[in-house]
Each structure stands twice: as structure tokens, then as C-alpha cells.
Design a protein that fits this description.
Chain A: Keywords: Cell membrane, Membrane, Transmembrane, Transmembrane helix, Transport. The complex is a heterodimer of chains A (229) and B (107). Chain A is mainly alpha-helical and 229 residues long. Chain A is built from twelve helices and no strands. Chain B is extended, with a radius of gyration of 19 Å. The chains are: A mainly alpha (229), B mainly alpha (107).
Chain lengths: 229, 107
């Protein structure tokens, strides 16, 4: 079997189902605020990072949607793409072909790829990643469409429960990551700074909370490293 | 073009920049470089703040769910996480079941 097909097959497991549930909920949330199916699909296809997608939807589609704070806060919420790309780039080979992976650098393909790629022969790595990523990306698009089309036919009780999926999913993911270096202080920073949103309003408040909490966590960790030296 | 369309277009440009810069910098900057570590910390903190606000002071339809039911959903999710040893999907379903059952119990 080609490395592309192996990647494609490995993508369709239990994590894909959990990821699919979040995109289903996103599609429903887009329908809830009255935006079109094409907006939902374009957002999933191109932003392809649920935290940023939700922040963008919450801030840009709300009453009197604020474009600039929505864009900056969504970018901050997905700022992890920068360290993720830096870490995976050397595993995807050299030259322009590495750019083919660009749209697919997101947590679902990235996390298994960081475990799997080092064990594969170098010429097979990019093909495996593209197979895995294309399968996850297509499943995400299908789930988004299903959520958008189903939502209007569900009773409000089930729609509200579906909307709860995403905060719960990300809460669980953060809890699971608490043991990883650097995550715990940033989670605490974000939680402590979250009330800024009540003071500054949701648009600038979320951005301020992320910047203040994240920067404080970063400085605190550097100070800790400095004092150990 | 509506505000939501413009915001989406600008966010897409920002995502290409983040991913593209990361691929270009890969091999040049170490993954533990201060700029990279700062971006990662801001990303996690923004996500944590988002989760707290979405559960504690949600907007839209989620605001119609009483807060004790939202808290019960979080607690049930955490319990599911422990019971199913970190398996994401069963934990998620347990949390949603907790939310719906407590909402129903609250009338």
C-alpha cells in the first residue's frame, strides 16, 4: 500500500469521530447565527482550526459584529499553528513540496504525524501526511455541512446541547494537555485573565485575556528557567 | 461583502501567514525559541479563556441552558474522562448526557 493510502486509512479512527463531532457542532452554530452553508464550509476549509473558527464566529457574527477584534482574536486563538509548523517542517522534507502541507497544519493531523513521521522512511513522510490530512479535512467538511443542514430540524434542547460540544471538547483537550511542558501556566493565565472579557466586552476582552494570560505565563516560565540556571 | 465575510477573508490570510511562516522558519528557529514559546502560550491562554467564558457566560442559545446544568455537563465530562481513561469521544458523550439529564431534572 502507498504511504498516501496508509495515511488516509489511519486517519479514520476514534479521534476522527471526536473531531467530527466538533465540526458538526460548528456547522450547527453557523446555522444558529444565520450565516450560510458556504460561509461555514469556507471557514472549515481554510481556517481549519476549531478554536479560531469559534472565536471568529462568536465575535464577527454577533450583533454589531466587530471585524478587527474578531480577526485578531481568532488569529491569537490559532497562534499555535506557528509553533506547530516550525516543529513539523523538518519532518516534511526540503524544497517547495513541503508547501503542499500548508493548509492542513492543524491539531488533528499534526499530533499523530509528530509521532508517526520520524519512524517512516524520509521519501514517504510527505505522502503519508497528505493522505492523513486530506482524509481528516474531508471528514471535517462533511461534518460541517451535516451540522449546518441538520440544525434547523432539531429541537432547541438538542441544538443547545450540540453547541455545548465545542467548549466541552476544548476543555477536555486542555485538561489532557496540562502535563505537557508550558501548558499548565498558560491555561491558568487564560482562566485568571478571562474576566477581562466581562470588563472590555467579548470582542477585545477575549484577545486581551489571551495576550495578558499567555504573556504572563511565558514571562513566569522564563523567570523560572532563569532562576534555575 | 458583509462584516462576517471580511472577517473570514482576513482570518484566512492570517492563517496562511502563521502556517507559511512556521514552515519557512522550521529548521531555522528551534521549536523552543522565545518567540515560538510566546505564541504557543498566548494560543493556549486564549483557548482557556474562550472555554471559561463559553461555559460561564455563554451567548445565544447556550445561554438558555441554566448554569447548574452547564456545570453538571463539565463535571460529567471530567468524570467520563477519568472513567474512560482519557478517551475523548466517550468523555464528550458523558458530558453531553450530564448536561441534558440535569437540564431535564431542573425542569
Amino acid at each position: 500500500m502507498s504511504p498516501f493510502r496508509i495515511g488516509l486509512t489511519e486517519a479514520l479512527g476514534a479521534p476522527a469521530l471526536a473531531m467530527g463531532a466538533t465540526f458538526l457542532a460548528f456547522g450547527a452554530a453557523v446555522a444558529e447565527v444565520g450565516l450560510t452553508l458556504s460561509w461555514a464550509l469556507l471557514c472549515t476549509a481554510t481556517v481549519y482550526g476549531m478554536a479560531g473558527q469559534l472565536v471568529l464566529l462568536g465575535l464577527a457574527a454577533g450583533p454589531g459584529g466587530a471585524v478587527l477584534p474578531a480577526v485578531v482574536a481568532a488569529t491569537a486563538a490559532n497562534a499555535r499553528f506557528l509553533p506547530m509548523s516550525v516543529a513539523i517542517a523538518p519532518l516534511l522534507g526540503r524544497g517547495w513540496k513541503r508547501a503542499l502541507a500548508l493548509p492542513f497544519i492543524a491539531i488533528t493531523p499534526w499530533a499523530p504525524a509528530m509521532r508517526r513521521l520520524p519512524g517512516l522512511p524520509e521519501p514517504d513522510r510527505l505522502a503519508w501526511f497528505l493522505g492523513f490530512a486530506l482524509a481528516s479535512w474531508t471528514a471535517a467538511l462533511a461534518a460541517t455541512a451535516a451540522g449546518h443542514l441538520l440544525a434547523p430540524h432539531l429541537p432547541p434542547f438538542l441544538r443547545a446541547a450540540l453547541l455545548f460540544t465545542n467548549p466541552l471538547y476544548f476543555g477536555l483537550l486542555l485538561a489532557a494537555d496540562l502535563a505537557r511542558p508550558g501548558v499548565r501556566p498558560a491555561v491558568i493565565g487564560g482562566i485568571v485573565a478571562a474576566p477581562l472579557a466581562l470588563w472590555l466586552g467579548p470582542a477585545w476582552g477575549l484577545l486581551a485575556a489571551g495576550l495578558a494570560g499567555g504573556t504572563a505565563a511565558f514571562l513566569w516560565q522564563r523567570r523560572g528557567k532563569g532562576s534555575r540556571r | 461583502m458583509t462584516g462576517a465575510d471580511l472577517a473570514l477573508a482576513l482570518t484566512v490570510a492570517a492563517m496562511v501567514t502563521l502556517r507559511g511562516a512556521g514552515l519557512l522558519l522550521g529548521g531555522v528557529l528551534r521549536p523552543d525559541h522565545p518567540v515560538i514559546a510566546w505564541a504557543a502560550a498566548v494560543s493556549v491562554a486564549t483557548l482557556a479563556a474562550f472555554v471559561v467564558l463559553a461555559i460561564a457566560v455563554p451567548g445565544g442559545l447556550l445561554a438558555t441552558v441554566p448554569w447548574p446544568a452547564r456545570v453538571a455537563g463539565v463535571l460529567a465530562g471530567a468524570l467520563g474522562w477519568r472513567l474512560f481513561r482519557g478517551a475523548l469521544l466517550p468523555a464528550l458523550l458523558t458530558g453531553l448526557a450530564g448536561l441534558m439529564l440535569s437540564w431535564w431534572a431542573l425542569g
